[in-house]
Automatic annotation (TrEMBL):
Pfam families: Methyltrans_SAM, PUA_3. SMART domains: PUA (SM00359). It is found in: Cytoplasm. Belongs to the methyltransferase superfamily. RlmI family. Residues 2-86 form the PUA domain. GO terms for biological process: methylation; rRNA processing. This is SAM-dependent methyltransferase. It comes from the Bacteria. Its main location: cytoplasm. Keywords: Cytoplasm, Methyltransferase, RNA-binding, rRNA processing, S-adenosyl-L-methionine, Transferase. PANTHER family: RIBOSOMAL RNA LARGE SUBUNIT METHYLTRANSFERASE (PTHR42873), S-ADENOSYLMETHIONINE-DEPENDENT METHYLTRANSFERASE DOMAIN-CONTAINING PROTEIN (PTHR42873:SF1). One of its GO terms (cellular component) is cytoplasm. The lineage of its organism: Bacteria, Pseudomonadati, Thermodesulfobacteriota, Desulfuromonadia, Geobacterales.
Amino acid sequence: MTRISLKKNEDRRIKGGHPWVFSNEIGRIEDASEPGAACELFDVSGNFIGTGYHNAHSLIAVRLLSRKQEDIDSVGFFEERIAAALAHRRSLYPQLETFRLIYGESDFLPGLVVDKYGDYLSLQLLSAGMDRRRGLILEALQRLLSPKGIIARNDVAVRTMEGMTEEVELLQGSIPDAVLMQENGLTFEVDLRNGQKTGGFLDQKENHLLLQGISKYKDVLDCFCYSGSWAAHAGFFGARSVLGLDISERAVALAGRNAALNGLSDRVSFEECDAFDRLRSLKLEGRSFGVVVMDPPAFVKNRKNLAEATKGYITINRRALELLEPGGYLISCSCSYHMGREPFREMLATSARQAKREVRLVRACSQSPDHPVLLNFPESEYLKCVVLQVV
C-alpha cells in the first residue's frame, strides 16, 4: 500500500478532522500506485493519521476514509458505511423514500454521492478513488437496497480534475423515462437521465415549507424555477397565482407537468425566459408580488470569480425587492460554497439599499439534514436560504 508522509507543520487541519490532503502538503510518497489506489497517511514523525486513497494528478491528493488502519477495498467496508448512512436517513425521514443517501465526506465516503428516488438510485463517482471502487459500491448498494436500477450521473466537470471523463451510464437494472417522488404531500416528476445534478434537487425540501402561511392569497414569483418545486409548493399553500421563470425549455416543460400532476395548473404557470431580463420587464409593466423566490444556480464556481458573481446576485435580488409589495417576502438562496453566510447577508443588505427597501431577516436556513454538515469540514455546508420581509 502507498505510504504518504506530510510535511512538517502540515498536519493540524487533517488531525483536526478535515479529510483532504492537498498536493503541496505532502512531503514523501513511498510505493506510489495508480490514481485512486489505497494509501496510509502519516505525519512527519511517522505517526499514523488515517487510511484513504491517493491521486497524484489531483490538487486534492489524498482523501481520507478512515482514521484506522483498515481495508477500504472490500464490499464489507462499503456496506457498513452505507448501512450507517441509511440508518441515519431512516431516522430523519421514516416515511420518505426519496432522499440523499450518501453525501460524500459527510458520510465518510469522499467522492461519492448517492440519491435514492424510490426504487431507483442515481449516483456520482466524483473522484478516481471512488470510480476505482464502483464494483464494491454497487454490490454494497444491491445488498442493502435491492434497487430496480442504478444510474451514474458522472456528467460533472469535477471529474476532469481527477483525470476522468464526463459520462452518463446505466450501471444496473433499468431506469424509466420519468420517476415520481413525493415531497411534503406533493408529487414531482424526476428525469434521472437528463435532469440537473442526479436528476433533481433534494436539499430544499424543508425550506419549501417556508412558503406555508406567507404565500396564502398572494401573487408569487419563482425565479430560476427548474422543476417548479417552489412554485408548486406556493400553489399548494394557497397562493392566488404563481409565475415561474426559467431559461430552459426542458425545465419549463417539466415544471408545467409537475403543476398538472398536483392539480395546480389553474393558478401556477411558467415562462421560458431570462430571469434577469424578465425581472426588469415585470417592473416596467408595473407588476408586484407578495412573495418572490430567488433560487439561482451556483454563480460562484471558484474564489476567483466571487466579486463578479456577487454583482449578479446583487442585481437579481435588487430587482426582486423592487417587485415586492409592502410587507412582502423575499426568499433568497445561494448554493455557492465560496459565498459564505456573512458575504451572502452583506450582498442582500447591499441589494436592499440599492432597491431603497427596508427589510428584516425573518428566517435563515441551510440544506436539508440528509446533506449533513461536518463541523471539521466546512466545505460540506454550502446552501444559504433566508427569508426577508419588506417593512
